[in-house]
Amino acid sequence: MKLLLVEDNERVARFVRKGLTEAGHTVDHADNGRDGMYHAVSEPYDAIVMDRMLPGGIDGLGIVEALRQQGNRVPILILSALDGVDDRIRGLRAGGDDYLTKPFAFGELLARLDALLRRSQSQAVETVMTLGDLSVDMLSHRVTRAGKPVALQPREFKLLTYLLRHANQVVTRTMLLESVWDYHFDPQTNVIDVHISKLRQKIDAGFATPLLRTVRNAGYMLTDQP
Amino acid sequence: MNLRLPGFSARTIAIGYAVVSLLVLAMFAGPLWFAWHKNIGEVRTQLLKSDARHLSNLFERQGPPALAAAIDSQVHGVNDGVRKIMLLVAPDGAKLAGNLPEWPEGVPERDGLCQVTIRVDDKPRNVELVRVTLEDGYMLLVASNLDRFQQLERLFAYGLLGCALAVLVGAALGGVLIRRALLGRVQRISQTTASIIEGKLSHRLVEPCDGDELQQLTRTVNRMLDQIEHLVTGVQDVSNAIAHDLRTPLSELRARLEELSVARPAGEETFAEIDAAIDDVDRVMGIFNALLRLAEIDSGSRRGGFVEVDLAALGAEVTEFYGPVAELKDIDLGFDAPEDLRVVGDPVLLAQALGNMADNALKFAPVRGTIAITARRLDADTVAVVVADNGPGIPEHERTRVIERFYRVDASRGTPGVGLGLSVVSAVARLHGGALTLEDNHPGLRATLRLQANPAAQAR
Lengths: 226, 460
Hints:
The complex is a heterodimer.
Chain A: E1 2-6, H1 10-22, E2 26-30, H2 33-42, E3 47-51, H3 60-69, E4 76-80, H4 85-93, E5 98-101, H5 106-121, E6 128-131, E7 134-137, E8 142-145, E9 148-150, H6 154-165, E10 170-172, H7 173-181, H8 191-204, E11 212-215, E12 219-222
Parallel strand pairs in A: 1-2, 1-3, 3-4, 4-5
Antiparallel strand pairs in A: 6-7, 7-8, 8-9, 10-12, 11-12
Helix pairs in contact in A: 6-7
Chain B: H1 10-62, H2 64-74, E1 84-89, E2 95-98, E3 112-120, E4 123-133, E5 139-145, H3 147-197, H4 213-263, H5 267-298, E6 307-310, H6 311-328, E7 332-336, E8 342-345, H7 347-364, E9 370-377, E10 382-389, H8 396-399, H9 421-431, E11 435-440, E12 445-452, H10 455-459
């Protein structure tokens, strides 16, 4: 994928660029608002990672707003040290698709970016989603693994469908918290881990290949690849 | 157009009072003066004219002697010429009757009404006079002394002036009194404020008990001072706490990295150390995030995001969220609420507050323990969520302190968390016009989160 990184902090930029390149993306980098704006309008990108506070006369939100006004629908992940709820709301209202606050774990950034890229690619609403021998019917809420029905609580179902929608991608605990529960705080206990292990019990117990994996230092991944 | 009112001060009040009083006085005296003047003057003139007419008729009917007798009877015993002045003279100018010794000088030659000055009893007097030339050259003079009325008018004017003076004195005196009363109170306020500026943040204004505007102002200022004190002590607590709680993971991190750089262990070990270092950093970040969250909640700016929230649904959701954790510890986690419990608030923060309370209870409840979460409407404006566990509880003297930032009961230093959970709950409660209280659950802790159902209406 071809990505644009607009970030003025040299060290953060180098770190993000290196990580994204290693993940198989092509990355263009702009270290000020003016260059960022120029790149964003002159070349087609699959996604943009945008810092908020930038030198060069135009800040990140300004660029996002300008792009949206031109009808540019490129997925944008806003990266900012401003982490108040109101700041997030402002960022998302300006046209950002996701908002990540600094300091951040690279795994989180990559996971969110992957989710954004995936969302922009497949807009079609699927009624039946499958992964390996796991099948989920979105309409009847029926879940089967290798033909055997799996009984899930409504919230477990929501958790599973979210993971399935982002299959083969790392999904972080924060992403789950925000998307499945709509909670925007950090529970001090390992609640998410417990929910995941309950879900794992139901879909993986008794099967040779586990689908739900824990990715160290990052989160979880639902995958049928070895 | 912008109407600017003069500043509220004792002098302005006094001057205003005087001006208004004088205006009222003038409004009262002016018409009175006009009516009196006009009425008296007209009546006087008519009386003079009718007198003259009567006397003329008498002369015509009965001749000079009868008229002379009538005049003499009317002006009999006249003193000082202040009452009626009459005179009848013969054609040759000799006096026949009246209270003037002779035909006075200055009387016009023609008949009719006029105002002149003549000598009466050797004093010049301003009179209104009717001169009538009768048949055969007899001349009649009827006059009325004007000085008498002028005296009265002067008296009226003096009275008015005295009144105005009294008003002015009253205004000055009132101004001084108001100034003294008001200044005394304002001065007390400014003295207290000055001592607060000097750093005695616990000082409060003395509330006057007469329920006037000043009391309301005092109350508002005191509420503001409460908030300021809370914020300032909060900042101090945070500084102290940062010194302790934030420094610990940071120094651990530093030690770890230093050891790594000196010892340069084998690859596998290095990666383990790096992972541990990342955990340290995450811990520091967690503390920072919680602190920023607290600051954000405390600043009150989140009130803009208030919407209607069903607390019962929120509580059920949080209970469900923590359900698996309770199951793991074999804790009986129950939630109970009436159908509908609507409050106006911030759903994100309320969820966090309930979450923190549940989190806290789960941390301290024993294996196979009980946690009961209940939400109830206490009265028309107050809604409470109670989280009761049967853990070790918190000793009474520690209960207010655990709400403070970073404070942790010594026994809980080993448990995960940064010691900000209940501070956040308390801040959320404050934002919603309520409070967090901790009580003994015999055994265990009973945390009650009280919320104003409609904090915006309460604040007004």
